[in-house]
Design goal:
The chain has 309 residues and is α+β, with helices and mostly antiparallel strands. It is built from nine helices and twelve strands.
Amino acid sequence: MSLASKSRSSAGFALSIVLWIVAALLLGIAFIMSTSKENVAITKALDVKLKTRLEAESLVEILKYAMLTSDYDSRSIYIKENLPYNFPKHLILDGREYKFNKDITLTLRDTSSMLSVFHPNFDLIALFATDDRELSYSIRDSIWDWIDADNSVRLNGAEEAFYRFNRSANFGPRNYSAVESVDELRLIKGVYDLSEAEWDALRPYLYSDNQTSLNLALLKREYLQKILKLDDSQGRLLQEYRDSDMKKFYTLVNANKNFNNEVMNFSLSFLIDIHLHVKKSLAATKLHTLMGFKSRKIKQISVKKFEVY
């Protein structure tokens, strides 16, 4: 091979190496640009997520101020000042949804319209949970068996043998008077047998803390009818009076033979179950807290539960 041919061959080989290096560099640059775009997108999304969380926490602080400075009656608070986010002046604490705008949703439920699982009232839980008589008995007796200290099974209840053998579970009853959480209640026979739809309907009315008296001015009509043993027309009439003439509502309820003033009343507990949902673009924050405002005069607030995600 001539010297010229060798030179051309070396030049061609060198060119191919250079082209391969250039191609590799271009691929590397393309990968870095693609990764950078993803990182920028993730950073932007994280920034929006953090903003929704900060906004949700800011709303809680405004709500604290509103709860401590507002007027109130047996079912509502009345905000006296103009607050940010166009806070409604009248908030009924029965779990209804308030939309401040298309991005912010708030629900407030005073626990006087809820049932505590901490020291459960099995009769009321069964009453709220189902209209099925057999299932209601199962819930009542099984909760009794779960919290009592013995191993004697009530007629429709369940002790350790049921959970070990019928449920193939690695747990038995707590055998202690306090149920630790709402999720624990779901493990109990009867409550476990509720459909997902029935459980989803019951769960918003359960909380884990000391029970307050049941505020009949806040209860949904269906529960009010069950507790006072009213038919549908009587329940609807009572609901109309509650919305239009509270004095008449009090009179009718007090005259009802099933009204028990030892466990029922018309007062707020000021232990509030709060749900906030804040969204922006593709990010959202859900905040759930249980806050006590019982010492309103000395502006004390207790936080029983705080979840944000």
